[in-house]
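Quick one, probably user error.
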């Protein structure tokens, strides 16, 4: 709730409770009893306060649902844009994938090493690669070291840079054949 509305809402709750308690006391009792009136006031303040709180919760819930719907729409739009981009550039992506496979062949990577190198290029962690391949992380680390040794690259960053460099230069394949 907005900070400026809170005092006004509190005044409205107090006024409503006071009015309802006064009305209830006037209808039920012939004489005025301050203690009974105070209890009526507290009872009505609790009822009105609970109603106001329930309305505030419902309003917040509605706002959250609207935000959620907007996020779903944004996500759907992003997915559609991504699909459109992939469709538009399918040939280039296929050419890039083929170029990467040719480079893996030139480095004489085993099928397992090529698979691991491809997953590393996608940003998959070694722990997740191990989980995907249903093997130990130590085995994956050994195979990753084999990729680095055969390629002459120092690590994951150089592996990614090797292929990305040619994209930024506008060529379809790696800039050199290590």
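Nope, works fine. Designed sequence:
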């Amino acid at each position: 709730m907005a900070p400026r509305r809170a005092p006004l809402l509190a005044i409205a709750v107090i006024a409503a409770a006071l009015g309802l308690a006064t009305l209830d006391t006037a209808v039920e009792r012939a004489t005025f009893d301050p203690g009974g009136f105070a209890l009526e006031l507290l009872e009505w303040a609790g009822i009105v306060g609970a109603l106001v709180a329930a309305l505030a919760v419902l309003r917040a819930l509605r706002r959250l649902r609207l935000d959620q719907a907007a996020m779903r729409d944004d996500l759907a739009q992003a997915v559609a844009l991504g699909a459109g981009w992939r469709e538009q550039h399918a040939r280039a992506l296929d050419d890039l994938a083929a170029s990467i496979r040719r480079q893996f062949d030139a480095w004489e990577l085993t099928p397992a090493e090529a698979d691991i190198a491809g997953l590393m290029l996608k940003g998959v962690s070694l722990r997740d690669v191990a989980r995907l391949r249903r093997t130990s992380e130590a085995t994956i680390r050994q195979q990753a070291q084999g990729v680095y040794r055969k390629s002459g690259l120092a690590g994951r960053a150089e592996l990614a840079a090797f292929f990305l460099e040619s994209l930024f230069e506008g060529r379809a394949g790696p800039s050199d054949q290590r």
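Residues 77 and 83 are 10 Å apart (CA to CA).
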